[in-house]
Design brief:
Length: 295
C-alpha cells in the first residue's frame, strides 16, 4: 500500500462559506457551532500530532550548534539585551510561560512536508520586494509558492533573502539559501506551523555579547613601555642610593635636589617629572650607572 496521501474532492457544503463569521454565529444553533468547533479542534490536533511523529529531530528540525537558548536554574529563558550609553549588556530572564524558544525547521524538514502533503513548490525572483529594499546589488530575494498537485490550488507562499558573501557564500550559495528560506517560510505559512517551529536561527547573531572591537588608538595618549623597559620606584631608589654613596651625601632634601639636577643632562628627563618611574626606561637608568662608574 502506498504511503502517499490522496486528495479527494471536498464534500458539498451544507452551510454558507465563512465569509462573515458574525452572521454565521448569529444564524446558527449554538449546538451546531459547538460541535463544529470541537470537530475542527480535534482534526487540527490530530493532524499536528501526526505530523510531529513523521518529523525526526536533528534531521528535519532542531537547534543548530551554537544557537541553543540560554536557560537558568529556574527554567527561565535568557534574552540578551544590549547595554545603553556604553554600558555592558546582559541577559534578561523570562518564564517559559511568557516566551518559549522553538526549534528551527530545516530544509530537509520543509522538503519532507512538501512531499508528505503531495504539493509542489515553484520559485520566482521576487522583484517587487527587491525593489522595495532599494535594489541592492548582490542580494537575492526569492519567492516560493506551494500548489496542490491534485487541484493546482495555491496553498501558501513564502519569501527568502540572501546576500552574496553572507557567511562566506558565493552567488550560487546565496541563491540556494534564499530559496531554502523561502521554502521553509512557505511551509510554515501554509500549514500554520509557526507556533511549533521557527526558521533560519543558524543565520542569526549568536546570543550574548557582541564580539569586542578595540577602540581606535588615541594618538595623544601616553605610550606604554614594553615590560622589559619599565622602571619601578625601587629601581630609582637604588640609583639614588648609589649616587649618594659615590658622592658621600646623606639622604636629605638637598641631596635629592642635587640628584635630580645631576641626571637631567644624562637622561634628558626634566627635573619636575624625574621623580616619576613612568618617565624612566631601563636604558636611562643604565646610562646613569655608566656615568657613575666612569667618574
Amino acid at each position: 500500500m502506498s504511503n502517499e496521501l490522496t486528495t479527494t474532492e471536498p464534500m458539498p457544503r451544507e452551510m454558507p462559506v465563512l465569509a462573515d463569521m458574525r452572521e454565521l454565529i448569529l444564524g446558527t444553533d449554538s449546538t451546531q457551532i459547538a460541535a463544529g468547533l470541537k470537530e475542527y479542534g480535534d482534526r487540527r490536533k490530530m493532524f499536528r500530532d501526526w505530523l510531529r511523529k513523521q518529523l525526526i529531530e536533528g534531521v528535519h528540525y532542531g537547534t543548530p550548534p551554537g544557537c541553543e537558548p540560554k536557560v537558568n536554574e529556574k527554567g527561565e529563558v535568557g534574552i540578551w539585551t544590549k547595554g545603553k550609553d556604553g554600558e555592558r549588556g546582559g541577559y534578561k530572564w523570562y518564564p517559559k510561560e511568557q516566551w518559549t524558544p522553538k526549534p528551527s525547521l530545516y530544509k530537509a524538514g520543509a522538503d519532507f512536508v512538501v512531499e508528505l502533503m503531495n504539493v509542489r513548490d515553484e520559485y520566482t525572483a521576487d522583484m517587487p520586494t527587491w525593489e522595495q529594499l532599494g535594489k541592492p546589488q548582490g542580494t537575492f530575494v526569492m519567492s516560493c509558492r506551494l500548489y496542490s498537485r491534485a487541484t493546482g490550488e495555491l496553498l501558501g507562499e513564502g519569501r527568502g533573502v540572501r546576500k552574496v558573501g553572507q557567511k562566506g557564500g558565493d552567488e550560487n550559495n546565496a541563491i540556494k539559501m534564499a530559496k531554502k528560506s523561502a521554502k521553509v517560510d512557505a511551509v510554515l505559512n501554509c500549514y500554520g506551523l509557526s507556533d511549533l517551529f521557527t526558521q533560519d536561527i543558524e543565520d542569526m547573531p549568536p546570543p550574548g555579547p557582541a564580539k569586542h572591537e578595540n577602540p581606535a588608538a588615541n594618538p595623544t595618549a601616553p605610550s606604554v613601555k614594553p615590560r622589559g623597559e619599565r622602571v619601578t620606584t625601587e629601581n630609582l631608589r637604588q640609583l639614588y642610593t648609589a649616587w649618594r654613596t659615590f658622592h658621600e651625601h646623606d639622604d636629605t632634601p638637598e641631596s635629592k635636589r642635587l640628584f635630580i639636577a645631576w641626571q637631567e643632562p644624562i637622561t634628558g628627563i626634566p627635573a619636575d617629572v624625574a621623580h616619576k618611574p613612568e618617565n624612566w626606561t631601563t636604558g636611562k637608568v643604565s646610562e646613569c650607572y655608566g656615568r657613575l662608574n666612569a667618574s
